[in-house]
């Protein structure tokens, strides 16, 4: 193998249970976002734009769709003679084999992949965050400061800091303490789950952690505290920009709606930092004469005959006459029949919303999720005019 200065490893094996029915048969990084993309497209595009061309994607839970989407990295221009994307599921070796027990264990089990490139540095990323970031600038910072580890941080409101892993730092950015979801946070510098390590140093701590039977084998709970305890030089890299952990139905809806603001923080139209994805082959969108569309993203193959306001429609969505869609996300190949009203909702791919159904309530606080029921009996619950409690977030209607 050709020696690489840095290898990126994307952790993409989590279940994402807080996304409810969306992730019952789908890995969280494969969930749709922004009318065209999947969540995993963002870290992969960041790698491509940062000129990091050797990437391992560690998959585990319900990974068939995710693996197929990633392929060999062609969509991101990473399938070249100088680099590639490699999908790394758990595998059996001469020493045995088992599922990844944690984020650190996932990297530990793939040491052979990393060492085959003999890198100086390893970039560890989460596969389920929405953001645009130049990792090469973070690497320059890491090298200039001669750090053992650099952790990207973002300022969050102090009242929300207890939801995150918090980095407590000195004035020069040196990390002296890490608090995992502290009840009384000392700072508002939240870890973004983006790390750069000197590979030789990290490898030593991974080997030590693997021998610790009481460890959770997790970067936040084990590796970072142990490195701090060993007086390794650890620095916080401050990120200025849009970043969102879309781990809940509410945060997924909010991140999509952020794209529809007049001046969105996350600019998907920036030609200097493109977000790449799989291009769906389908005809142009069609908007009928009687249709009304305002402040919305409408992808290819959509057929709009009703009213769409402040919403995002993925490819091949059909909206019947008299149907109203407001403040909602409609995923690929959903079929909205005549007279249906959808407000402040997420409609999963392949759903049929029947004639004159009413889904959601724009005045309510809850986000309604309509998704296929994952049961052997394959029964269908049919939403009608009196439907729906806004608190019900896993409602059912099959195609």
TrEMBL record:
<dbReference type="InterPro" id="IPR023049">
    <property type="entry name" value="GlgC_bac"/>
</dbReference>
<dbReference type="InterPro" id="IPR029044">
    <property type="entry name" value="Nucleotide-diphossugar_trans"/>
</dbReference>
<dbReference type="InterPro" id="IPR011004">
    <property type="entry name" value="Trimer_LpxA-like_sf"/>
</dbReference>
<dbReference type="InterPro" id="IPR005835">
    <property type="entry name" value="NTP_transferase_dom"/>
</dbReference>
<keyword id="KW-0067">ATP-binding</keyword>
<feature type="domain" description="Nucleotidyl transferase">
    <location>
        <begin position="8"/>
        <end position="261"/>
    </location>
</feature>
<keyword id="KW-0119">Carbohydrate metabolism</keyword>
<comment type="subunit">
    <text>Homotetramer.</text>
</comment>
<feature type="binding site">
    <location>
        <position position="100"/>
    </location>
    <ligand>
        <name>alpha-D-glucose 1-phosphate</name>
    </ligand>
</feature>
<keyword id="KW-0321">Glycogen metabolism</keyword>
<keyword id="KW-0547">Nucleotide-binding</keyword>
<feature type="site" description="Could play a key role in the communication between the regulatory and the substrate sites">
    <location>
        <position position="60"/>
    </location>
</feature>
<comment type="similarity">
    <text>Belongs to the bacterial/plant glucose-1-phosphate adenylyltransferase family.</text>
</comment>
<keyword id="KW-0548">Nucleotidyltransferase</keyword>
<feature type="domain" description="Glucose-1-phosphate adenylyltransferase/Bifunctional protein GlmU-like C-terminal hexapeptide">
    <location>
        <begin position="289"/>
        <end position="363"/>
    </location>
</feature>
<feature type="binding site">
    <location>
        <position position="191"/>
    </location>
    <ligand>
        <name>alpha-D-glucose 1-phosphate</name>
    </ligand>
</feature>
<dbReference type="InterPro" id="IPR011832">
    <property type="entry name" value="GlgDAde_trans"/>
</dbReference>
<comment type="function">
    <text>Involved in the biosynthesis of ADP-glucose, a building block required for the elongation reactions to produce glycogen. Catalyzes the reaction between ATP and alpha-D-glucose 1-phosphate (G1P) to produce pyrophosphate and ADP-Glc.</text>
</comment>
<dbReference type="InterPro" id="IPR011831">
    <property type="entry name" value="ADP-Glc_PPase"/>
</dbReference>
<feature type="site" description="Could play a key role in the communication between the regulatory and the substrate sites">
    <location>
        <position position="99"/>
    </location>
</feature>
<comment type="pathway">
    <text>Glycan biosynthesis; glycogen biosynthesis.</text>
</comment>
<protein>
    <recommendedName>
        <fullName>Glucose-1-phosphate adenylyltransferase</fullName>
        <ecNumber>2.7.7.27</ecNumber>
    </recommendedName>
</protein>
<dbReference type="GO" id="GO:0008878">
    <property type="term" value="F:glucose-1-phosphate adenylyltransferase activity"/>
</dbReference>
<dbReference type="InterPro" id="IPR056818">
    <property type="entry name" value="GlmU/GlgC-like_hexapep"/>
</dbReference>
<dbReference type="Pfam" id="PF00483">
    <property type="entry name" value="NTP_transferase"/>
</dbReference>
<dbReference type="Pfam" id="PF24894">
    <property type="entry name" value="Hexapep_GlmU"/>
</dbReference>
<keyword id="KW-0320">Glycogen biosynthesis</keyword>
<feature type="binding site">
    <location>
        <position position="165"/>
    </location>
    <ligand>
        <name>alpha-D-glucose 1-phosphate</name>
    </ligand>
</feature>
<dbReference type="InterPro" id="IPR005836">
    <property type="entry name" value="ADP_Glu_pyroP_CS"/>
</dbReference>
<feature type="binding site">
    <location>
        <begin position="180"/>
        <end position="181"/>
    </location>
    <ligand>
        <name>alpha-D-glucose 1-phosphate</name>
    </ligand>
</feature>
<keyword id="KW-0808">Transferase</keyword>
């Amino acid at each position: 193998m050709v020696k690489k200065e840095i290898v990126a490893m994307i952790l993409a094996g989590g279940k994402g249970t807080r996304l409810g029915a969306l992730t019952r048969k789908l890995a969280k990084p494969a969930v749709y976002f922004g009318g065209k993309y999947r969540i995993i497209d963002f870290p992969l595009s960041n790698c491509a734009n940062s000129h990091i061309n050797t990437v391992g994607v560690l998959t585990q839970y319900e990974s068939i769709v995710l693996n197929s989407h990633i392929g060999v990295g062609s969509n991101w221009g990473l399938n070249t003679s100088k680099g590639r994307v490699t999908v790394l599921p758990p595998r059996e070796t001469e020493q045995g084999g088992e599922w990844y027990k944690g984020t650190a264990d996932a990297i530990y089990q793939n040491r052979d992949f990393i060492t085959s490139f003999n890198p100086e540095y390893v970039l560890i990323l989460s596969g389920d965050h929405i953001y645009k970031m130049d990792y090469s600038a973070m690497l320059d910072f890491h090298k200039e400061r001669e750090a053992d580890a650099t952790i990207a941080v973002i300022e969050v409101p102090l009242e929300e800091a207890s939801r995150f892993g918090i980095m407590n730092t000195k004035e020069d950015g040196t990390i002296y303490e890490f608090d995992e979801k502290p009840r009384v946070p000392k700072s508002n510098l939240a870890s973004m789950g983006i790390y750069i390590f000197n590979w030789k140093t990290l490898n030593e701590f991974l080997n030590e952690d693997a021998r610790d039977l009481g460890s959770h084998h997790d970067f936040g709970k084990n590796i970072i505290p142990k490195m701090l305890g060993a007086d390794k030089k650890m620095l916080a890299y401050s990120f200025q920009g849009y970043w969102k952990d879309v781990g809940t139905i509410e945060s997924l809806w909010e991140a999509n709606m952020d794209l529809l603001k007049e001046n969105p923080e996350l600019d998907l139209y920036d030609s200097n930092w493109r977000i790449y994805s799989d291009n769906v082959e389908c005809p142009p969108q069609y908007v009928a004469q009687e249709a009304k569309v305002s402040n919305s993203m409408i992808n290819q193959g959509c057929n709009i005959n009703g009213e769409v306001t402040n919403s995002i429609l993925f490819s091949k969505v059909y909206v019947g006459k008299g149907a109203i869609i407001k403040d909602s996300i409609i995923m690929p190949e959903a079929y909205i029949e005549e007279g249906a009203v959808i407000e402040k909702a997420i409609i999963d791919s392949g759903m049929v919303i029947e004639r004159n159904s009413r889904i959601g309530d724009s005045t309510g606080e809850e986000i309604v999720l309509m998704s296929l029921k994952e049961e052997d009996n394959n029964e269908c619950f049919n939403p009608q005019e009196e439907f729906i409690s806004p608190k019900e977030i896993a409602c059912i209607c099959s195609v």
